[in-house]
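User: Hi! I'm working on a homework problem where we have to compare a predicted structure to a textbook description. Could you give me the structure for the chain below?
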Amino acid sequence: MITDINNQPLSPEAERMLEYLRSRAESMGTAGIRERIRAAARELESAVAGVSEAQASLRPIKDKWTIAEVVDHIAQTQIRAAEELRHLFAGRRPPGPPVYEALRSGAARWAPWTELVDGLKSANEELIALLASAPESAHPPDAAAVRTVLVVSRALPDGRTAPQIFITDLDWREYALLQRLHLLDHRTQIKNLRAALAG
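Assistant: Happy to help. Predicted structure tokens:
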């Protein structure tokens, strides 16, 4: 049984995410997965378009990331995801630690905004291009898997929400679909940050 990093049972939200990844991975072909990731990447890039350098570095919501930090995080995780997918496509378990949930380079504090955006777009293109070489055939039960850190927003008994972090193994299709969810989650985060800036 999978438990979270605090050895607690998975929340209904976490169970639903895992079921979504497993069922969609079984039902979707390689081309469909690639196109869904491409669409999610474009949605994120559209959310970033029009953000100024000054806006990117502001922190409109206390204790939350700036837009620049979100963009840096996505670029860093997309490149790592591409590395891990290369191993999975070759039938190998990726070496090294998993991609941790708050991975950032620190460049958001000093790099020009245009450079951060270019890095985001390049990382997205790298992942999408790599998926063109993904296996077309269904994965056998003993296919290589990657150790993956997942974060799910769950409802607490008092009505608040909080993240639940847990670790599990995913095959390449599940892992690729997780990247789509990751892109969409941060697209929403950027939209919320932009709304807070405008307000």
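For your comparison, note the following. The radius of gyration is 17 Å. The CA atoms of residues 153 and 162 lie 6 Å apart. Good luck with the assignment!
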